[in-house]
Specification:
By secondary structure, the protein is α+β, with helices and mostly antiparallel strands. It contains 18 helices and nine strands. The protein has two domains: about 210 residues, no CATH class; about 210 residues, no CATH class. Helix 12 packs across helix 14 and helix 14 packs antiparallel against helix 17. The protein starts with 9 loop residues before the first helix and ends with a helix.
Length: about 450
C-alpha cells in the first residue's frame, strides 16, 4: 500500500523541485556554481580540442596540396627512374608520376644570399587529372585583385617561388634570381686546394666556367598556406635541377600522386610489392611523421589534462548534493516513513546531478561555439592588449589565423564524459541519503 503513494515520476518531480530556490539560497548558489563548473570544463575542452583538430586538418590540407602522395627513391640517386615510372604507372591507384630533383641551394638576389630548397620536376600536361602540375597550379598566390601571380610555367631559365620567400627578399615577378649548387661550391673548394698544391692557376679558370651559377626568371609565386613551404621552396625545370646537381639524366626520386592522398598507405604497399625491396617508398605522412605525431600526442595529453576540470566539476556537484541532502534530511525521513524506497530516494539526487550536468553541458557547448566563431577577433583583441601575436605562422607553419575544427566525435566524447563524471559524483551523496534512518531524520527537525 505504501508503494502506491509514489508514482513513477516521483523522483523526477523532486529532482527538479530541489533545483528551485526556497528558504535557503545556499544550495541554489552551490548548484549554480556546479553548473558553471561543468559549463567551463566543457567550453575549455571543446575549444582546445577543436583548435588542435583544426591545426591538424590545416596541416594535412597544406601538406597534401604541396607534397606528392608517395615518393619512390633508392636512398640517394635514382638512375633507372624511367623504368620504375613505367612499372608504377601500371597500378590502377596511380594517377600521375614525375621524376624530381630536390636539395638545398644558395640563392642570390640583389646582393642578398639565402639558403633555400629547390624542387625540380618534369610535370605532365597540366590538363591531366591529378597531375602534380595541376595540383601546384592551384597554389598560385593571388594579388590584391584576386588574380594569379604569374604562371606555374617551368622551363629552362624559369622558376616559381613561394610568396613568403619573395616578400622577405623583395623579389617581384620578372626579377632574376641566381642559384648556386652545393656541388659547385664543393668543386670550387676542391679546385682552390688543387691550385694551392700545384701552383697551376689555370685550374681556377676551368672551374669558373664549370661552376657558373644558374640564373632564373621568376615567372610565378605560390602560396600553400604553409610558412615552411612558402618561405623556403623554389620550383624549377627537371633538366635544370639535373644540371645543377650534375646528375646526367638521373633523378633523386619519383613523385607519385593517387586519387586520395589519405589512402596513400594502401598504394604504398602495392608499389612496394611491385618494384621490390631495393627501393624505398614513403608516403607524405612518413615524410612529416614527427610533426603529425607531435600534434597527435599534444592533443591526447590535452584531453587528459583538461578532463581534470570535469573531475573538479564533479566534486562541486558532490558538494552540492551533500548540502541538499543535509538541508532536506527531514523531508527524506518523511518520504521513507510513508513508503518511498531507497532506490527512489537515490534516484532523486542522481537525477538532480543529471539535470545539472545537462544544463552545464548545453551551456558549455553554446559558449564554446560562440568563442570558436569569434576566435580570431578574440585572439586579435588579447594580442593587442598583451602585445603578443597569437599563432604565428613562422612557428606553427600554417597561415590563415587560428584554426578550429569542432568534430562531432570530439563533442560527443566530451559531452558523454562530462555527463558520466557528474552522475558518478552523485552516487556517494545519493546512497547516503537513501540509507538515512527516517526516525533519526525526523527527530532532528
Amino acid at each position: 500500500m505504501k508503494a502506491g503513494l509514489f508514482s513513477k515520476h516521483f523522483s523526477t518531480f523532486l529532482a527538479f523541485r530541489y533545483l528551485k530556490p526556497e528558504r535557503s539560497a545556499v544550495s541554489s548558489i552551490i548548484t549554480l556554481i556546479s553548473i558553471c563548473g561543468v559549463a567551463l570544463g566543457v567550453t575549455v575542452l571543446v575549444i582546445v580540442i577543436a583548435v588542435f583538430s583544426g591545426y591538424e586538418k590545416r596541416l594535412t590540407d597544406t601538406v597534401l596540396a604541396f607534397e606528392p602522395h608517395l615518393v619512390v627513391d633508392a636512398g640517394g640517386i635514382l638512375d633507372d627512374w624511367d623504368e620504375v615510372q613505367e612499372r608504377v604507372e601500371t597500378l590502377p591507384d596511380v594517377e600521375s608520376t614525375t621524376p624530381f630533383v630536390q636539395g638545398q641551394v644558395l640563392m642570390d638576389f640583389a646582393g642578398r644570399r639565402y639558403a633555400t630548397v629547390i624542387r625540380a620536376i618534369d610535370p605532365p600536361p597540366s590538363e591531366e587529372p591529378g597531375s602534380m602540375l595541376s595540383q601546384l597550379e592551384n597554389l598560385l598566390a593571388k594579388d590584391e585583385e584576386g588574380k594569379p601571380m604569374g604562371k606555374f610555367l617551368l622551363d629552362f631559365g624559369t622558376a616559381v617561388i613561394g610568396d613568403d620567400l619573395a616578400n622577405s627578399m623583395g623579389i617581384h615577378l620578372g626579377d632574376y634570381i641566381t642559384v648556386h649548387s652545393p656541388k659547385n661550391i664543393e668543386e670550387i673548394y676542391s679546385a682552390v686546394e688543387r691550385a694551392k698544391e700545384t701552383g697551376d692557376n689555370s685550374i681556377l679558370d676551368d672551374i669558373t666556367e664549370m661552376s657558373a651559377p644558374k640564373e632564373y626568371e621568376v615567372v610565378g609565386m605560390f602560396n600553400s598556406d604553409n610558412y615552411l613551404f612558402d618561405s623556403n621552396y623554389i620550383f624549377i625545370y627537371l633538366a635544370s635541377g639535373q644540371e645543377l646537381y650534375s646528375l646526367r639524366g638521373a633523378a633523386h626520386g619519383l613523385a607519385v600522386n593517387t586519387p586520395d592522398g589519405l589512402k596513400a598507405s594502401k598504394t604504398q604497399k602495392e608499389v612496394e610489392a611491385l618494384i621490390g625491396p631495393h627501393y624505398q617508398v614513403r608516403t607524405w605522412m612518413d615524410m612529416h611523421r614527427d610533426l603529425f605525431s607531435a600534434v597527435a600526442t599534444e592533443r591526447s595529453m590535452m584531453y587528459l589534462i583538461l578532463f581534470i576540470i570535469m573531475i573538479v566539476a564533479g566534486f562541486c556537484i558532490m558538494n552540492t548534493l551533500f548540502t541538499v541532502t543535509f538541508e532536506k534530511r527531514g523531508e527524506i525521513g518523511l518520504m521513507k516513513a510513508v513508503g518511498a524506497t531507497e532506490e527512489q530516494i537515490a534516484a532523486v539526487f542522481i537525477l538532480h546531478a543529471a539535470v545539472v550536468a545537462v544544463v552545464g553541458i548545453l551551456s558549455g557547448l553554446g559558449f564554446a561555439f560562440l568563442i570558436i566563431a569569434r576566435r580570431n577577433d578574440i585572439a586579435g583583441f588579447f594580442g593587442k592588449v598583451m602585445n603578443v601575436e597569437f599563432f604565428k605562422s613562422e612557428i606553427y607553419q600554417v597561415e590563415g589565423g587560428l584554426p578550429a575544427d569542432p568534430r562531432l566525435s570530439d563533442i560527443s566524447i566530451i559531452s558523454l564524459g562530462a555527463f558520466v563524471a557528474c552522475v558518478l559524483a552523485a552516487l556517494a551523496p545519493a546512497i547516503m541519503a537513501s540509507l538515512r534512518d527516517p526516525a533519526k531524520a525526523l527527530r532532528s527537525e
